[in-house]
């Protein structure tokens, strides 16, 4: 066909020439009309990707997304890696952003947070195109906020969650599930900043959205966060009530990973309520479940919880043993510096109780180094108090007073 033949009575020859030379981008309606004249797939004419090819890539991404949703993380990552070349070959930004976001989520779950951020920054750049909706942009920002939170960049994460929520709320596309998740994670940021009132407000809004969707998995996550906030506020019976609701929901959706995390939480609450034996039983269940699903980091949280119970009930040797085991499980994960610091302090206090003062000092300093990465005054203060107790045991009252005063000054800047 000549350009005149293709143009027919609808367009000029010159207009067809401009399209061919890339000087003009036709509308979707024009592409559809030209495709019918040429007898080809409109998608292939627009971007070189046939409907069949896009369908194959869509199906592969759907399989990866399903594995991601089922938390079969290793299989999901393999699927995303397998489909990567096919996605790039399409040249379609929406498919690439979807693949990048999915792979990033898997990598976050595996502790590969910095690698996830690289992927999400690429997805964020793609989503700035006018071809993307506000909801799609909000989803990328939400995932990026989660990654930043995991690296303890709480203020950056808070800004990303704020932006994601603003985009989702102004969109006409329904987004209750996304907004619920954004609110739940923003609540974590407020909790880390000790703004418990704001944290509780976000959790209540998130829970309302999740319950309206009858989304048990999301509701379980939010009940879990509500339990943590109630715990921080000293409402331990309420915290246990929320945790038990979360436990029932996780069991209903067979989410053993989060069930293990919740058992850890229930262990801590029961200890605070004066039931150390029940606490240890919950914590041991948490360790068992975490190891069964291959989550060493969550197992370490529960092991450290067991160590703290032993420390506070006077079983010092077992406290030391469990704290060392927790540190072994945690390794050098950049997204677990808070728990590494906690375990070092438990280990240090167990060593202090055994009068192994030099070893205790080494553990306390390691805990302080870990907490330094959090930019959290309250965490650093706990390390200074521990070092103050060590100085007092050595008879160095002046050093002890200085460390206690340093901790008190830091806590004056913390909002309770």
Indicate the mean pLDDT: 91
SSE sequence, one letter per element: HHHHHHHHHHHHHHHHHHHHHH
Q: Report the sheet-strand fraction.
A: under 5%
Shape field = elongated
The helicity comes to over 70%
Secondary-structure-derived class: mainly alpha
Q: Report low-confidence residues grouped into runs of 5 or more.
A: none
Q: Quick one: how many beta strands?
A: 0
Which CATH class of the domain at 133-235 applies here?
Mainly Alpha
Instruction: Give me the CATH superfamily of the domain at 133-235.
Output: Tetratricopeptide repeat domain
Q: Kindly provide the radius of gyration, computed on alpha-carbon positions and rounded to a whole number of angstroms.
A: 27 Å
Largest sheet: none
CATH architecture of the domain at 133-235: Alpha Horseshoe
CATH-defined topology of the domain at 133-235: Serine Threonine Protein Phosphatase 5, Tetratricopeptide repeat
Number of separate helices: 22
Distance between the termini: 75 Å
């Amino acid at each position: 066909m000549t350009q005149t033949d293709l143009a027919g009575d609808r367009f000029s020859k010159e207009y067809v020439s401009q399209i061919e030379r890339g000087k003009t981008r036709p509308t979707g309606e024009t592409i559809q009309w030209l495709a019918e004249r040429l007898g080809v797939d409109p998608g292939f004419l627009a971007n070189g990707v046939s409907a069949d090819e896009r369908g194959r890539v869509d199906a592969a991404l759907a399989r990866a997304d399903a594995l991601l949703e089922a938390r079969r993380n290793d299989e999901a990552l393999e699927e995303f890696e397998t489909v990567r070349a096919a996605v790039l070959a399409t040249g379609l930004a929406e498919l690439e952003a979807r693949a990048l976001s999915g792979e990033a989520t898997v990598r976050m779950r595996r502790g590969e947070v910095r690698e996830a951020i690289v992927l999400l920054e690429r997805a964020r750049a793609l989503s700035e195109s006018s071809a993307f909706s506000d909801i799609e942009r909000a989803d990328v920002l939400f995932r990026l906020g989660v990654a930043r939170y995991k690296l303890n960049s709480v203020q950056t994460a808070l800004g990303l969650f704020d932006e994601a929520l603003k985009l989702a709320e102004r969109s006409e596309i329904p987004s209750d599930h996304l907004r619920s998740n954004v609110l739940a994670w923003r609540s974590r940021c407020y909790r880390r900043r000790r703004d418990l009132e704001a944290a509780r407000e976000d959790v209540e809004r998130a829970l309302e959205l999740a319950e309206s969707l009858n989304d048990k998995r999301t509701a379980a996550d939010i009940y879990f966060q509500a339990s943590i906030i109630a715990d921080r506020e000293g409402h331990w019976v309420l915290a246990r009530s929320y945790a038990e609701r979360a436990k029932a929901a996780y069991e209903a959706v067979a989410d053993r990973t989060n069930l293990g995390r919740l058992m850890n939480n229930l262990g801590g609450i029961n200890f605070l309520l004066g039931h150390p034996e029940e606490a240890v039983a919950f914590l041991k269940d948490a360790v068992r479940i975490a190891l069964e699903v291959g989550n060493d980091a969550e197992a370490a949280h529960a092991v450290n919880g067991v160590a703290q119970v032993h420390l506070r009930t006077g079983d010092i040797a077992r406290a030391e043993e469990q704290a060392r085991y927790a540190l072994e499980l945690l390794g050098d994960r950049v997204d677990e510096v808070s728990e590494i610091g906690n375990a070092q302090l438990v280990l240090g206090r167990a060593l202090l109780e055994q009068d192994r003062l030099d070893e205790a000092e080494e553990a306390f300093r390691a805990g302080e180094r870990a907490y330094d990465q959090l930019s959290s005054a309250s965490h650093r203060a706990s390390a200074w108090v521990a070092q103050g107790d060590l100085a007092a045991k050595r008879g160095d009252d002046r050093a002890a007073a200085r460390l206690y005063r340093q901790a008190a000054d830091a806590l004056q800047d913390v909002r309770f």
